[in-house]
Amino acid sequence: MGEGTKGTIRSARAGELRRRHRELSILNAIASALNGSVELPEALRTTLAHVAELLDLRTGWIWLLDEESEQPFLAAAQNLPPALARNPQRMEGWCYCLETYSAGDLSGAANVNVVTCSRLKSLVDGTDGLRYHASIPLYAHGRRLGVMNLASPDWRELAPEDLRLLHTIGDLLSIAIERARLYARRAQIGAVEERNRLAREIHDTLAQGLAAVALRLEAADALLEAGAEAEQVRQAVGAALALTRTNLEEARRSVLDLRAAPLEGRTLAQALAVLAREWSVRGQLRITFTAVGGTWPLSSRLEVGVYRIAREALANIAQHAAASRARITLAMSPGEVRCDIADNGRGFDPDNLPEGHFGLLGMRERARLMGGHLAVQASPGRGTRVVVAVPLEMSA
Question: Virtual CA dihedral for 299, 304, 306, 311, nearest 10 degrees?
Fold first, then answer.
């Protein structure tokens, strides 16, 4: 074999290695970008940009199918030609490639098709010379997600390695789409559960408190009509006013409970210590706080959840227990965080809660959402103890 032939082979191999290296670099960049974000629009835009770079193209767009109606919608686009960018109606509804996809004729690497774009076919001006696009089908577990289109004025025949590469990119994007949708569903479920908890809390505090105020005012009105002495009426109105102030405090507490950062930059141990001092200063309860392993790092979600359970427990003590003392004990270890809130109040029978009393139910639900559990130890005349325990491996 002559030196010229050997040089040609070496050059071809070097060119092939450079091409493979470039493809792997872009695939790695796409995978990294998709793994780094659960925000679907950002993932779609990033993928379009990298794929366009890979194939030396400028324009692309991604159709997704609505999960409920299965109607297509434009989820992302890059450098649309003026005829499409200035006329959004042209990028609505079905087209040839989407109908082909819906019919099941786009599936797998062998069916990454190059077609004449039916949205551009009839246009003369404002197309930037684009006429064709490659359609990459997107699937998750056999379920149709959508199509990624990459447009070009003229397409070369796609080699088998090009088809495999585009199919791999489609698989990566499909995984990212499915993950983003699962994340969104999880967030939505969490929001619904939190709204339910708040509804129970409002019913158990504000609604019942306002009903009590109304009863006091109705009693005062009845005393007036009966010609009762002014002191009796004044006492009834005073009781209603006291209840109103209590409910105003409850409303403020609920608003504070909804703040984005209820710990205000403190650790859980620091925030609970401040909470104990604040309640003690009010004079309603004398509260002691003890922390064991209080410097152990926790996720913000777990810190906020445990803190809110402790606040709710103190509010229940103040409202129902007629207690003079309470204690909060926080114990953290590599495997678990545990918060114990106990009082010396009148106690109650946990098996016979008054109807409509949702405070404990809301705390149990919050503990469950963190992957933990909440236990109540109480009996009439012997105080109450509430313990929430959450395994740390569930807190991330």
Answer: 160
The fold for domain 262-396 equals Heat Shock Protein 90 (3.30.565)
* Strand, helix or coil for residue 62: strand
pLDDT tens profile 82-118 = 988 888 888 888 888 888 888 876 654 445 667 788 8
Q: How far apart are CA 116 and CA 51, in angstroms?
A: 19
Lookup result for tokens 């906020």: 304
How many helices (DSSP H) and strands (DSSP E) are in the chain? 10, 10
String of DSSP letters for 65-125: E-TTT--EEEEEEES--HHHHS-GGGGSS--HHHHHHHTT---SGGG-EEEE-TTTTT--S
Please state whether the predicted TM-score (pTM) of the whole model is above 0.70. no
CATH 3.40.640.10 at 22-184, yes or no: no
Residues near 116 by Cβ (< 8 Å), separated by ≥ 6?
96, 131, 132
